[in-house]
Structures are given as C-alpha cells and as structure tokens.
Amino acid sequence: MHVLVLNSGSSSIKYRSFDDQGTEIASGLVERIGETDGRATHRVLGPDGEWSSTVEEGAIDDHAAGFAGIVQALERGGYAQELGAIGHRVVHGGAEFVEPTPIDEAVLERIRAQVPLAPLHNPANLTGIEVASRLRPDLPQVAVFDTAFHGSLPPAAHRYAVPGSWHDQHGVRRYGFHGTSHAFVARQAAAHLGRPLEDLAMITLHLGNGASLTAIDGGRSVETSMGLSPLEGLVMGTRSGDLDPAVVFHLLREAGLTPDEVERTLNRESGLLGLCGDNDLRVVERRAGDGDGSAQLALDVYVHRIRKYLGAYAAVLGRLDAIVFTAGVGENAAGIRRRVCAGLGLLGIRLDDARNEGARASEGPGGVVALHHDDAEVAVLAVATDEELEIAEQTRSALRRV
Ligand code: ADP
Question: Does the annotation count 146 as an active-site position?
C-alpha cells in the first residue's frame, strides 16, 4: 500500500508519496493556489528507476484543483492503483489528539474545534483534509499531529503558572510541536547507537526555519521548548521565541500596535530576521563572517538561547546519553554545532572538531553522522530528519490498529 503525505498550507500543498518499503516514489509542491500565477512541480519515480519532473504554470483555482493535479501526477507515474491511504500533517491536536488518528466526520469536527488554538495553521490543514476526503472518499485518511509526541509531557512541564481556569476553559498550556521530527530522529539515534530507545536520555535539537528542543527520556517527550503555539522557545528564522509577555502589553500601550500587528511581527518579522534583516542562516553566517555586527549579534543570541535550553534540559533529565542535531541548520551548519557544544564538558559533551567540520547528516550511513570525541560521555549526532516518512509510517500504523 502506498501512502501519500500531504502538508497543506494556506496557498500551497506540499506532498510526498511512499511505497510499501517506505521508498519515496513521488513528491512535489503546488504553490500560489488561488492566484493567477500558480505553479505545480511534480517529481515521479519511473519504472526504470529514473525521476522525471514536470512544472505546470498557470492559475490553480483552489486546493481541490491542486490536489487533483497531484493525483494526476501519481496516475501518470503509473501509481494510481497502489495508492492506499493519505496521511495529513496537522499542526495542532490540542490535548485531544496524542496519536495519529483515522479521520471520519466526528474526528474532523474535533480537529475543527482545535482551530482557536492554532488559527495560523490548522485551517489550511483542514482544507487539505476536506478536499482529499471529498475527492478520494475511497481512501482512508489519517491525521498526524505535530503536537502528539508531546502528549507525554508531565504537568510540571506542560502547565503554565496562570489561573487554573485559563487551562480548564481555554486550553492554556504547553503542547509542543515538531513532534514527528523529534520522534523520528530519536529512533534513528537509538538505532545508530545500537541501544534501545527505552534506555536512553537524549535532547533533540530541531533547528530549521522553525526551531525547538525536546528532552526525551526513554523515548517519551518530557519537556519541549515550543508552547501553546510554535512561537515560544528558541530564536527562529522569523519567530522571536521566548520573551517577557509584558513586552506585548508595553507595545500595545506605548507603540499603538494592535494585537494582530504584534502577533504578526513576533511570528514573521522577528527572530534572526528581526535582529539582522535576514532569516536564512547561511546568509547570516556569511554576513557575520564579513564582519557585519548585527549578523554577529543575531548568531550570538541564537546560540546563547540554544545553550541555555540545553543546560536546562540536562537538568530536567538528570542524565544524558546523546544530543541530536537535526533539520536544515542542525544537519548542516557545523559552525553552529561547534558554538552550541563549546565548553559543555561539564555535561559530558565534547565535540570532535575534525568530525564536525563540514559534516552533513544526509551524507552519513542511514542519515546519521557521529560528531563526538571518542572518549566523550555523551554522543553528539547529526541526524537527517524525515517528517513526511514518519507521517507515512504513523499513517500505516494507525490503520493497522483499526
Ligand atoms: P523548514 O523549517 O522550513 O523545513 P529547514 O529544516 O529546511 O526549514 O531549515 C532551513 C534553515 O536551514 C535555513 O535557515 C537555512 O539557511 C539552514 N540551512 C540549510 N542548509 C544549511 C547549511 N548548509 N549551512 C547552514 N545552514 C543551512
């Protein structure tokens, strides 16, 4: 059975499709949906083992048209018959969904009920589900939630110190995100170390455009840096991460901004972008290397925040077997890994500079590269994440359970 994985945004659909062995057989991106200059890129693996790509340009009226184009691309590749299920990435599952969940009307209703918690993300994910269910009612559809892996957070980690009624009536608590990525790389790391995940204490660092850390004890998430929304925690490409909530009230009162303006600025115009004007870490590193002061400051704040969390999570876990770097920055940016690990001998972390320099996770066997010193107590790994593959596997396992 092939599984098609959809990640629906407000004006785009990203997809990848996998065969029974988990081998990727198609991928693509439909973008600028609803605009006159839409664009759909499809890559399909042919029977000869060669990939063929097509690019279609022109108006794509809505998500239904985008989805139809994806199904046609699979059909052109000769995969129409094998498609057995669709897995949907859903950002927020609230406290309600802690497992991948086959979708029916009642589940759809419960996902809709989470929209107030994730107004920036869930509506687009829901559109993808509605369209795919309508156009392919013959296929089982499964929702896989970014929050689900963090369903194991203990109350001490997931509660905010606010009135209990805010938690009870408005769902105000830490949920955490990037769960499919943290879960995937934790398993890969355990396999690489040749030890059962159940025995390991590790910290996974997902450093992409969005960024979060998770403390994982015996395979269970026990603390994570994103909160009610993906805004909390680390410095990201365009998100601020942690800040004193009083900053918001100060801006509302003193700068005359509206709540929507503050929300937008903290999500889209802050982080590395806010500090130095660029959000792509490669560009920030290049500028810092050329002596640009604001780019250097941006990197300093970025690295400092990661190190602060790393120390805190080592304390939360009380022991540490591995730290795992993943996503665009974690997998590739040796300079950031070096700065994050520098001087952390007190935690048993010792990077081997020669191993780290130039190392890319995707080039290691199984997408894993070991970066630590031979006699370090804590393994430092770069692991290539694959959120879509994880969603495909979780989709399969959810369907096996029903
Ligand atoms: P997303 O969260 O959008 O999936 P990615 O995981 O692709 O993001 O990460 C994007 C970030 O990774 C960007 O800031 C990019 O600059 C950074 N990145 C990608 N490759 C490298 C590299 N070789 N060196 C440094 N940073 C990199």
Answer: yes
Which amino acid is residue 233, in one-letter code? G
Q: How far is the CA of 237 from the centre of ligand 1 (A)?
A: 9
Domains of the chain: 2-145 (3.30.420.40), 195-387 (3.30.420.40)
**From atom 7 of ligand 1, which residue's Cα is the shortest distance away?**
328
- Residue 89 Cα to ligand 1 midpoint, Å, equals 20
The catalytic residue among 19, 20, 37, 146 is 146
303 pocket-lining for ligand 1 (C-beta < 6 Å): no
Instruction: Supply the pTM of this predicted model.
Output: 0.96
pLDDT tens for each residue of 247-283: 999 999 999 999 999 999 999 999 999 999 999 999 9
For 118-127, what is each residue's pLDDT tens digit? 998 999 999 9
